[in-house]
Structures are given as structure tokens and as C-alpha cells.
Amino acid sequence: MSEKRYFINPYQDFGPSDGVLDATGDELNGRVKEDLMKNFTKLLKSFEDEVNETINPNDSSVYTGSTGYALLYLHLALVFNDHKLLDKAIAYTEPLVDTSGKRRLTYITGDSGVHTINAYIHYLKANQNESNISLRKLKKLVVCFADNETQTDVCDELLYGRSGFLYSLLFVRKFIQTSHEIIEDQDIRAVVDAIIKSGQRTAKRDKVSDRCPLMYYWHQKQYIGAAHGLMGIMSLLLEAKSYLTDEELDKCVKPTIDYILSLRMPSGNYPSSLSNPYDRLVHWCHGSAGAVNLFALAYEVFKEERYLMAAKDCGEHVWEKGLLVKGYGLCHGTAGNGYAFLRLYQLTGEEKYVFRAVKFGQWCCAYGEHGCHKPDHPLSMFEGLAGTLYYLTDLLQPKNSRFPGYQIS
Ligand SMILES: [Zn+2]
């Protein structure tokens, strides 16, 4: 395989005169911010010139559809403290809320994304009734993800499975203060329970429980990465740690994370699946970029130095090989990889990581000038420009940034 997947990183790494933060460490300094915002404004205009012509009424997802556009405007409303943008956001979700049950169900690819985002926008607009209506629709989906051995079509991974639904429940509980009246602890526990039981059953069946107590398949493969595999599922279980028993955390989740660590390849990357052990993909969806959040969470929860080292190690690999030929998106593009550095800044407080995140942002500002592949959905949140715009604005307040659909805390 000699196909070129990444560009040689042309940037000098962080040096003593390369400060990018203001005195508080909370925001970018004026010069860096001004330059990014100039480019952001230009890119936002090209997004807005085209977006309404690309709406596909059959695609409501955050990943490639209308809810992704809602999520972008919701994010911009919060970052720029401009509540008028909430009206733009809601215009994308409102037409979708009554067509539940006909699509996929997770946050990134289905109904729970629509209900979560619609509930949050209404909450911010102080429309409590409308917010509650969406929360109740979200609650109705819990039963679809609860443990049921006969329900073999339910998977556990982030994009299409239980952990992707768990994200929605955790998100509303964290950001919508009134949500606990509708989304109860037992709802979250039911989904956590199902994820753990499903992983234990599969590990037992495969006779791997002694080294990896939780194992999962998606399309007949044991995936490792954030989108379809163990990294994404373990990250969401750690995000939900207060709903797990100590025994589940210590005897199931922790050894499974250690198993993932054991799969590290000499370059510092991780394989996309057990049956595809090649060192090729450095994406959020597959490989080291998506691993950073998992190891960061593991360090925050278990306080063991080796998880911090593993997270930093992934950061080095992403800095070297993370400017992607696939483009500038979140799922398998340079913006998504930039989140690895923002997460490392949150973990370590080292300015070097914001510098690197900014460099990846500056690379994205030259959108379309590197001869990258054009994604199938060029404006979308996870493949295209909406995700890049989301990342550029997340750079402004690095401590508050979160990879959408993946990071809660
Ligand atoms: Zn991807």
C-alpha cells in the first residue's frame, strides 16, 4: 500500500516565541484569533451560499444531514453569544421532530441526535414545553437500547449503537438542567448495563475474557477505533462512570482499555480492527487521533501515569501524520485530528498543544488548496465544511472545546 494518506507536516513545532494564548490561558491571543476569524468568516460565507441547495430531506443525521447544520448554528450561537443564531439552528431540526422512528437512533446518525439538539435549543430559548417534548421523545428510545439478548440487530458502537445513544442521555443530563425530571438515572443505567452485558457475552463467547473482558463486533469485525469500536465504547462508559459500579470500572472497563493499549503499533498508531492490523489510518474514526480522548479520560479516572503517556504518545503521532489527504472534516479529516491537541491541552495545560491545534486550524483555513479528496457530502458536519467551521470556533476557547458526539466532560 503506497497510497499517500497524509501530507508531510510543514510546520515547525512549538518554540518559546510561539505563544498562542492570552494571559488567562482560556482564549487565543488577539493576533492568532484575528487571523483565524478572518478565514472563518470567508469559509462560513461559502458554506451559507451553498447549504440550502444541498439539503437532503431524507438525511436528518448529525453526520451528513440537516441536524449537523443545526448543531453548527447552535455552537456558533454559544461561542459568539448570539442567540439569534438559535433560530437558524432550530429551522433545521423542527421539520424533523415528528418523523421519529423511521431512521437510525443514535446521536450522530439518527433520531436521538435530532431530539437532543432540538431539546437543547428550545431550552436555551427558554421554551421549556417544547424542550420537554423532545426529551420525552428521547426517553421513549431507551427501550430500544436496553439489554435484550434476542435483539441481535442492536450494536454497541458510537456511530450506530448503544454508546452513541448513551452520548445523547449524558449530554442532556449535563447541559439541560431540567432534563433529570424526564431522563432519569435508571434510563442511563439501563443503557450502560446493556453495553456491559453485551461486551461480556461476546468476550466470553470468543474466550478472550481473561485479557479483554468486554468485546464487541460491528459488521462481523472487532473494531478498535472511536467511531465503530472499543475506543468509542470505552470512552462513553468512562463518561458515564458515575453510573457504573467500582467493579465494572476496575474489572471490565480498565482491563479492556489496557488491552487496547497492548495493540499499540511501533509508530504509535492503533489498528482499525483486530482483523485489519495495518498501520494506515490516523483519523478520529480509526487510529490514534480518536484514542487521545479515551486515554485522557482513563488518566482522569484511574490517575495512572501510563494513560497520560499513552495520550501524549498519540498526540505525537497525530502531529506527524495527521494532516490528511481525505480532507478537512471531523471524522477522517484534519479538523477532527486537531481535536486530539485540544484534548491534550485540557489534560496537561501545556500551550504546545494549543499551538499544534492552531496549526491544524490554519491548515484547514487554506480549505481546498491542498488537492485533498472531495467528500461525498462537502458541507456536512462529519465529512465536510460544517465540521471544519465547528473546529475553528472551538479553537477560540480551547478549554471549553469538545469533539461533538464524542466528548462530554
Ligand atoms: Zn471517518
TrEMBL record:
CDD domains noted in UniProt: euk_LANCL
An annotated GO BP: carbohydrate metabolic process
Record keywords: Metal-binding, Zinc
Chain sites annotated for binding Zn(2+): 285, 331-332
Top-level taxon: Eukaryota
A GO MF label: metal ion binding
Gene Ontology cellular component list: plasma membrane
Keyword Metal-binding carried by entry: yes
The family this protein is said to belong to: Belongs to the LanC-like protein family.
PANTHER family linked: LANC-LIKE PROTEIN, LANC-LIKE PROTEIN 2
Protein name in the entry: LanC-like protein 2
